[in-house]
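Fold this sequence, please.
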Amino acid sequence: MKILPRLFATVAAVALLASAPAAAKTVQLDQATIADLTAAMAAGTLTSEKLIQLSIARIEAYDRKGPKVRAVIMLNPKAIETARERDAERKAGKIRGPLHGIPVMLKDNYDTADMPTTGGSVLLEGSIPPDDGYMVRRLREAGAIILAKVNMSEFASSSSDSSIGGQSLNPHDLSRQPSGSSGGTGVAIAAGYAPLGFGTDTGGSIRGPSTTNGIAGLKPTHGLLSRDGIIPLALSFDTGGPMTRNVTDIAISLGTMTGIDPADDATKKSQGKFERDYTKHLNANALKGARIGIARDFMKQDQEVDWVIENALKVMRAKGATIVDVAYPKFLLDAKGEFYNIIRYPEFAAQIADYLKTVGPKYPKTLPEMIERAGQFTSPRPDGVGPNSPRWTLFQLELAAAPVTDSKYLAVRDHGLPLVRQTVEGVFAANKLDAIVYPTAPKRPAPIVEPPEVPGGAGNTPANIANLTGFPDLIVPAGFTNGDLPVGISFMGTAFSEPKMLALGYAYEQASQARRLPVNTPALPGEGIEVPDAK
């Protein structure tokens, strides 16, 4: 695959100059970027095998011991073996791609032919898919090593735990939500298990865990990445996407997975619009002359979150951006939650049955069968697997929803969603905006003991506008409230504007330097990595 970004030419040049000890710097594993790790492997100061061993050591120290953040459902038993293969390839001069030898954490709704894919549910415990999903296949082709399948809100909805993985904990504050549904990925990346993970987003499920765990994340334009081999929640909104500790790593990973996939018609929308190298758009001066809209409709819910966002706007102004107050029409704010649920509930009932056709004969094949089997699992097992009553109760609402042939569903799908998209495009055009920013989560992470405001629905979240429109939304760490709780800021653009969002988000990230490491998963001894100093 000829998808090596400009980054690799830089890494190769740096590696040639890195033979003297004085030309190196020490970077801790939980702060290392993909570029750092690639440079170290190119220079011979790190191997992929050693990197995997360091990652596993962090998982062993923090996932079921110590703070017990419970991000991992299953480690890949062949991860070290695969790392040795990638090392041998590197030694032979074969570099598969920009993620060669890099560990990746996968939300457990991505099909992996060599590991179970459960959707976080005991109802699919042990289910081995017939093949890799499209994005998984592309990751492996780019040289990535699937290190683990990670926890999630069961079947990507309701509360941020699962019957098979339990409750993941926020590494910044163990009493707080890590958010969902990609909570395990958010926790794993924040805790330094790997530099790159993947979640899915239907109504904010990449963006919520990114902001609450203090990392970067991207919900791409609908159709930029294939959903083949991802357990569906609602295909009108579903997309996979990367979660990392910095914007550069999002740009590196994104181009490895774009392209038209015959197995997913939505990717046809990206024809002529996707790119293979998004790193070329990273520009520390991108905010100069930019017009940024601030959606204040989603503020005034938490004074401390608002304080962080206002200071983020000051950073953008200082870098040359013009900040414009924007307001969404009242009808959109009033209708967006209902529009979302009218699509989301009936699509799950229909589409999960399509997915269940691909699993083995011992597993349920329809939502009613899932409900019946869940009703037989009413007490926890000694290994910690236990009932998930919030999600299993939601099955009933999904089953009772009007079918996808209903007039209300068809009206929203065919007329409501285009109306929302055109309305938001109008806000961009009328204000000549490059992006609209807003607090990804208007309130600080909630205590775990508090149930979600709207179980399984979009609620009052601002994030679902990007799902209703299909537009991209990039999350960048913005700062912290009292108690050291992370706040993220969203950069939302129009369709296929990922290059511009990455440029703006990168410029803000470089100017703000707001990310901090979680206090509950500190560096372990021996995690320093010698990286050639590009300076």
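The first helix runs from residue 6 to 16. Residues 1-22 have pLDDT under 50 and may be disordered.
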